[in-house]
Amino acid sequence: MITKRIIPCLDVKDGRVVKGVNFEGLNDVSSPVELGKYYSDCGADELVFYDITASSDGRRLFTDILKEVASNIFIPLTVGGGINTLEDFDRVLKCGADKVSVNSGAIKNPDLIKAAAEKYGSQCVVISADIKRVDGEFRVFARGGRDDTGMEGVSWIKRCVDNGAGEVVVNSIDTDGVKKGFDIEMLKAVCEAVNVPVIASGGAGRAQDFVTLFNEIPDIDAGLAASIFHFGEVKISDLKQLLNKNNINVRL
Amino acid sequence: MIAIIDYGVGNLFSLSSSLKAVGADAVITGEPELIKKADKLILPGVGAFGDAMEKLKADGLDILIKEETDKGKPLLGICLGMQMLFQKSYEFGEHKGLGLIKGEVVPMEGRIPQNLKIPHIGWNALKFNGDCPIFKDNKDGDFVYFVHSFYADGCNESVTATTEYGITVTAAAANKNVFGCQFHPEKSGETGLKILSAFCGLEANK
Question: How near does any CA of chain A get to the CA of B206, in Å?
Answer without folding.
Answer: 33
